[in-house]
Each structure stands twice: as structure tokens, then as C-alpha cells.
Design goal:
Pfam families: MiaE. This is tRNA-(Ms[2]io[6]A)-hydroxylase. It comes from Zooshikella harenae. By secondary structure, the chain is mainly α. It has a single domain (13-200), classed as Ferritin, core subunit, four-helix bundle (Ferritin, Up-down Bundle). It is 70% helix and 2% strand. It has 9 helices and 2 strands; from the N terminus they run ααααααααββα. Strands 1-2 form a two-stranded parallel sheet. The longest helix has 28 residues, at 138-165.
């Protein structure tokens, strides 16, 4: 089996300080979009379960992942309510859709690419929880730190499944998506989201 890279060596860039400053200026959007991300992560896992019922390992991993992501949503939603934040609809970041635009259309390559993208989303989530935590109040700091272990495991699960179901080594595809992911994080973005790049307003200051 191919070697599994550590999360710290998987991402090609760190979150820019300007994004952290934007997150601290937009705590309500941060929490709302975080909650939305947890729901989307659960939905992705369930879609994979329905689309690929023939893969037993995928069924086991995605079932557990979906339950954990929904539990995380419940926890974030409780924080939102405790802080009297109005939970509302937000437009998505370009992050996931841009990554998915590079997915191949034939199987099993399509599944492998979707799994690799899942690994990147989980890896970036974990990295952002880690960089944000020291700047947050005690309650949020504790909560975000508590998410690190599960997000790292989700990253590992996605990547292991990609390796398992790929007919070829996945390093080339990982590198392909890594460059796209890096550009999304470092390029200016129109608005702040949990997985956005640096908001344009921050780039002009």
C-alpha cells in the first residue's frame, strides 16, 4: 500500500494571517459557515454511501463520518444559539466547487478524485481549527481543539480509501489538487467563509 502522508505535509500552504484577522472580525459568519460546513460534510458522506454501495469499507467509514459531522453541527448550532446569533443562509465559498471542477468523469477515477478532495477539505478544516484556536475565547478554543483529532482521522480515512480504490498511485492526483487548493487559499476572495481565501477587503488594507 502507498504511504499515507501526514496532514502537516499534505497542504502546500498555511492559512494567511489576513484570513485569521478576517475570522476574528466576522465571528458570526465564522460560526454560521462552520455549521454549514459540518452539514455539507455529512451530506457528502451520505451521497458516497448511496452512490457506491458495493464498497464495504467506504460504507463503514462514511457512516461513522456522517454521524460525527452531524454531531459537530449540533455542537456548533448550540454555540450559535447560546450566543444569540441569527442562523441564516449563506452563499457557499468557491473552495469545494472549484476543487470538484477537476474531478475525472470515469470510474474508479471519479471516486478516487472525490475522496482526495474530501481529504483536502478535512485537512484544511483541521489546520484552520488549529490556527484559530489560540485567538478565540476559552469556550471556542476548547471546542475547536476538541475537533482536531476527528478532523485528522477524517482526512486519513478519505485518503486511505482513495489509495484503496485507485488503480494507480495517487500521488499525481494529490499534487494536482494540492496546487488548486493552495491557489484557493492564497488568492483574494470576494467574501469571508470558513474555507475562503483572504477577503479582498483585507488585501486592500
Amino acid at each position: 500500500m502507498q504511504a499515507l502522508p501526514e496532514l502537516d505535509n499534505f497542504l502546500l500552504c498555511e492559512t494567511p494571517n489576513e484570513w485569521i484577522l478576517a475570522a476574528l472580525d466576522e465571528p458570526e459568519i465564522l460560526l454560521i459557515d462552520h455549521a454549514n460546513c459540518e452539514k455539507k460534510a455529512a451530506s457528502t458522506a451520505l451521497r458516497l454511501m448511496f452512490r457506491y454501495p458495493e464498497h464495504a469499507d467506504l460504507q463503514h467509514k462514511m457512516s461513522r463520518l456522517a454521524r460525527e459531522e452531524l454531531r459537530h453541527f449540533e455542537q456548533v448550532f448550540a454555540i450559535i444559539q447560546d450566543r444569540n446569533i441569527s442562523y441564516q443562509k449563506l452563499g457557499p465559498a468557491r473552495y469545494a466547487s472549484t476543487l470538484r471542477s477537476g474531478v475525472r468523469t470515469h470510474e474508479p477515477a471519479k471516486l478516487v478524485d472525490i475522496l482526495i478532495i474530501g481529504a483536502f477539505i478535512e485537512a484544511r478544516s483541521c489546520e484552520r481549527f488549529a490556527v484559530l484556536a489560540p485567538y478565540l475565547d476559552e469556550s471556542l478554543n476548547k471546542f475547536y481543539c476538541s475537533l482536531l483529532k476527528s478532523e485528522r482521522r477524517h482526512f486519513q480515512d478519505y485518503l486511505r480509501l482513495a489509495i484503496q480504490y485507485s488503480e494507480d498511485p495517487i500521488e499525481e492526483r494529490v499534487s494536482f489538487f494540492a496546487e488548486i487548493e493552495k491557489a484557493l487559499i492564497l488568492r483574494p476572495d470576494t467574501e469571508f467563509r470558513f474555507h475562503s481565501g483572504v477577503p479582498q477587503s483585507r488585501c486592500n488594507t
